[in-house]
Design brief:
The complex is a heterodimer of chains A (about 230) and B (about 375). Chain A has about 230 residues and is mostly helical. Helices cover about 65% and strands about 5% of the residues of chain A. The chains are: A mainly alpha (about 230), B alpha/beta (about 375). Chains A and B meet through helix 2, helix 5 and helix 6 of A and helix 12 and helix 15 of B.
Chain lengths: ~230, ~375
């Protein structure tokens, strides 16, 4: 079912949108993404040299630990989220597959575009994911995440070596590009895609909450969407 | 050099070495050295010695395509085993137009003889690649395009060794826009196994080590996905770099002659390609293990990696993205996008707030107008 527009007028009862595994995944994932972006940025362009005795310093070591550990948790989370797309409620798979072939979705998409261009007086009220936000999630979060996970594990395979399961599972990434520097480049571009996503995602959610007629941020906390007139 | 290989009696490598005045002690020393280099374990030395005493020598044809001869230069400077030993006794390098004294038709005839006498039984070593554009006239050897010479010799070879990054991946000749359409050997040869031994040039001991392995064991070494022998290309420069401790500590050379450079800090920030380069430089070293680029204070350029010429700039960590302007990289593109979205968000927010405020005032005004 996914997205469905609700009538513009009248009071609407609260709706349960996100089940608790989805919400837990969202916030854990958000935390991991922040850690990954910060540590990843600092791995590619490190801090100014630390001074002191080399044997007592482990700056890059800890950064890499933070990045690799949270990266693997991020991948596990992503896997779980894919699993939950099949086993969650009627909205949980929409993240991966917007129902763009349905008229209700395309109508909602254009309504959202108009609303965001300040052409609509009344904010659309709906259940499910906001179609515009959904597209942004797919293009700037889901696909870059998949790409970061693939390139990330391919680079981890470089560290763990030819005999590792990482190389067995992701070594083919190396064959695609030949030079593994390209993996780093793609991984870095994905970092920036996620930065762009984080900015637009937070803005859209908070704005919808403040100016629109339904809850967004608290929906991700409680799972329940409440509507205003 | 070809008398030995062309006589009918089977001549082993050990016999030839002996006839060259290399005594048994030196011979066994060489076998141990190779066994260690190839990582064959305690029994390896004996296996190599036995193979060299029993197996007939295998002729090697060494062709030169579009290249700079740096691979040959590296090869003849091999110190373990000494190049003279290798060339004159260990392998029968029957044809190498750069090293051999003969020239002209007679020299070229050797190639045909080897193909005839040792069909399917010789090793073809190729230095350089094949320019396919303009019917191959960018590389003429012996009056003919190199492409046809390669095809003739490759067809009946037992295995092909692609020496250097040129032969393995294309190197500078194949860098964008690749006007001569220089093409790596592995893309031109079918039905014959190709081993890539990249590097610009490859390390001499790596070259001799691979030849020794193939000649003594009569099989290819273990190869990775890019057909490189795992024994030498299995690990990154970064993994065995003696400056790795400085990387983990976060101590970097910031500019070419700062204190960090004097202290021998990690060259990561100056574009060292060690983390993405598979080679044995940081273990075997160059010139009899004297040094290698990082040890001399210069970042690794990643010369043994595919397309390394197109992955510049060499002295910057982030690879360039020419698609977005000649000096841009991922961070510039990413930051521009992030700033763009930030500006859009800011503007949108400002307009939304302004509109809300206006609407609020209007609502208030209308509320005051008609109190309900």
């Amino acid at each position: 079912m996914g997205y469905q527009r609700l009538p513009d007028d009248g009071d609407l009862p609260p709706q349960r949108i996100f089940d608790w595994p989805c919400r837990a995944w969202h916030w854990i994932n958000a935390l991991l993404v922040v850690v990954l972006i910060v540590s990843g940025y600092l791995i590619g362009t490190p801090l100014p040299s630390s001074s002191g005795d080399t044997s007592s310093l482990y700056v890059m070591g800890w950064l890499r630990f933070a990045h690799l550990a949270s990266g693997q948790l991020f991948a596990l989370g992503f896997l779980f989220r894919v699993y939950w797309a099949f086993n969650g409620n009627q909205y949980s798979w929409q993240l991966f597959l917007p129902t763009f072939w349905k008229k209700s979705w395309t109508d909602g998409f254009w309504a959202q575009i108009k609303w965001n261009l300040l052409l609509l007086k009344l904010a659309p009220r709906y259940v499910g994911l906001n179609p515009v936000a959904n597209v942004i999630m797919l293009v700037l979060f889901v696909l870059p995440s998949l790409l970061t996970i693939l390139t990330g594990f391919a680079m981890l395979a470089e560290v763990t070596g030819h005999d590792s399961w990482q190389y067995f599972c992701f070594g083919w990434m190396v064959s695609i590009f030949g030079n593994t520097l390209d993996l780093h480049l793609l991984h870095r571009l994905c970092l920036w895609a996620l930065v762009c996503f984080t900015m637009s995602h937070i803005y859209i959610a908070i704005r919808e909450d403040a100016v629109g007629r339904q809850t967004m941020v608290s929906t991700m906390l409680s799972g329940i969407r409440q509507y205003r007139r | 050099m070809s008398i030995l290989t062309r006589s009918k009696r089977v001549i082993t490598t050990a016999e030839v070495m002996e006839s060259r005045g290399i005594n048994r002690r030196e011979f066994l020393g060489f076998c141990s050295m190779m066994a260690v280099m190839l990582g064959l374990g305690p029994e390896g030395s004996g296996k190599i010695a036995q193979a060299m005493e029993v197996k007939p020598r295998v002729p090697v044809l060494w062709l030169h395509g579009l290249e700079c001869t740096c691979c040959s230069e590296s090869f003849i400077r091999s110190s373990h085993p000494q190049a003279s030993d290798v060339i004159l006794s260990m392998i029968s390098l029957d044809y190498d137009d750069t090293l051999m004294a003969a020239a002209g038709d007679q020299a070229e005839a050797i190639v045909d003889e080897i193909i005839r006498d040792y069909k399917g039984n010789y090793i073809l070593a190729v230095e350089g690649n094949v320019p396919l554009a303009h019917d191959g006239w960018n590389c003429i050897v012996g009056g003919r395009p190199f492409k046809s010479r390669l095809q003739e010799t490759a067809r009946h070879a037992k295995a092909i060794i692609a020496w250097g990054t040129c032969a393995a991946f294309g190197c500078v000749q194949a860098a964008r826009p690749n006007p001569t359409q220089a093409t790596p050997i592995s893309q031109l040869v079918e039905h014959v196994p190709v081993i890539n031994v990249p590097g610009c040039p490859p390390i001499a001991e790596v070259m001799t080590g691979i030849l020794t392995y193939m000649l003594t064991f009569d099989r290819l070494p273990d190869l990775d996905r890019q057909r490189r022998p795992k024994m030498f290309y299995g690990q990154r420069i970064h993994d065995k770099c003696y400056r790795r401790a400085h990387f983990d500590a976060g101590q970097f050379v910031e500019s070419w002659d700062d204190e960090g450079a004097r202290q021998g800090y990690c060259l990561y920030k100056l574009g060292c390609r060690g983390p993405t380069t598979y080679n044995a430089c940081s273990t075997i070293g160059w010139n009899d293990g004297v040094s290698f680029p990082i040890k001399s204070g210069a970042p690794c350029m990643g010369c043994s990696e595919e397309g390394f010429w197109d992955r510049g700039p060499f002295y910057e960590r982030l690879q360039g993205m020419q698609q977005f302007g000649i000096e841009s990289n991922a961070d510039m593109v990413g930051k521009a996008a992030a700033v763009g979205i930030g500006a859009a968000v800011g503007a949108h927010m400002a307009v939304s707030v302004a509109k809300k405020a206006l609407q609020g005032r209007k609502d208030n005004a209308s509320d005051e107008g008609n109190p309900s």
